[in-house]
Specification:
It contains 9 helices and no strands. By secondary structure, the chain is an all-alpha fold. Helix 2 packs antiparallel against helix 3, helix 4 (78-91) packs antiparallel against helix 5 (95-104) and helix 6 (110-123) runs parallel beside helix 8 (147-157). The radius of gyration is 17 Å and the shape is globular. The mean pLDDT is 78. This is Pentacotripeptide-repeat region of PRORP domain-containing protein.
Length: 176
C-alpha cells in the first residue's frame, strides 16, 4: 500500500495516527500525501479515487500545515519544498489561486509555471491573456521556458482555439 495508490486512505491513516498519538505527522509524510493528492487529481474523472472537492480542501490544509511548520523553523530541503508547492498548485481549482500560490513561493522554477499553465488549461480560462502574462513573468524573473512549457501552452490553447500567444515569446522559447 502506498499513498500514491489511494490518497483518501492515506488521509484516513494520517487522521487516525495523529488522533491516537496526539501529535502531528512530520513534513515528509505531509509532502508525500500532498503529492499523491495532486497525482490523483490529475487523473480523468472516472479514475479518481475520492471526491475532488474533498481532496482539494485537504491539499490546502496540508500545504497550510507545511507553511506553518516552515515559519516556526522546521528545516526543509528547498528542492523538496518547491516540488511540494508544484504539487499543491496542481490541486488548485482556479488559475488565480494557482498564481497566488506561485507568488508565495520563495524559489519558483519552470515546473512551477508549468503547473500554473496546467491549472489554467484544466479550467478553460481566457488562455491567451493568462499565458502571455505568465511568459512575461518568466522573462522578468530570468526563467527560461522549456519544451514542456511550450507543449502545455499548445495543449491548453488547442481545445479553445485560442492558440495565438505572443509570437515574440514563442520565438524566444524556440531559440532556447
Amino acid at each position: 500500500w502506498s499513498a500514491s495508490n489511494e490518497p483518501g486512505l492515506a488521509l484516513e491513516w494520517l487522521d487516525s495516527w495523529e488522533t491516537r498519538r496526539k501529535c502531528s505527522a512530520d513534513a515528509a509524510t505531509l509532502q508525500t500525501i500532498l503529492r499523491a493528492i495532486a497525482a490523483d487529481l490529475s487523473k480523468e474523472n472516472g479514475a479518481r479515487s475520492t471526491d475532488t472537492k474533498a481532496l482539494v480542501a485537504r491539499a490546502s490544509e496540508l500545504m497550510h500545515r507545511l507553511e506553518k511548520m516552515k515559519s516556526v523553523g522546521t528545516s526543509f530541503d528547498d528542492t523538496e519544498m518547491v516540488d511540494t508547492y508544484n504539487s499543491y498548485i496542481l490541486t488548485l481549482a482556479s488559475g488565480q489561486k494557482a498564481e497566488e500560490a506561485l507568488e508565495n513561493m520563495e524559489s519558483a522554477n519552470i515546473e512551477s509555471y508549468n503547473a500554473v499553465i496546467s491549472v489554467y488549461a484544466r479550467n478553460g480560462s481566457n488562455l491567451r491573456e493568462e499565458i502571455n502574462a505568465l511568459f512575461l513573468k518568466l522573462d522578468e524573473r530570468g526563467i527560461t521556458p522549456n519544451l514542456e512549457t511550450f507543449m502545455r501552452c499548445l495543449s491548453a490553447c488547442a481545445p479553445s482555439k485560442k492558440s495565438r500567444f505572443r509570437p515574440d515569446l514563442a520565438q524566444k522559447l524556440i531559440e532556447n
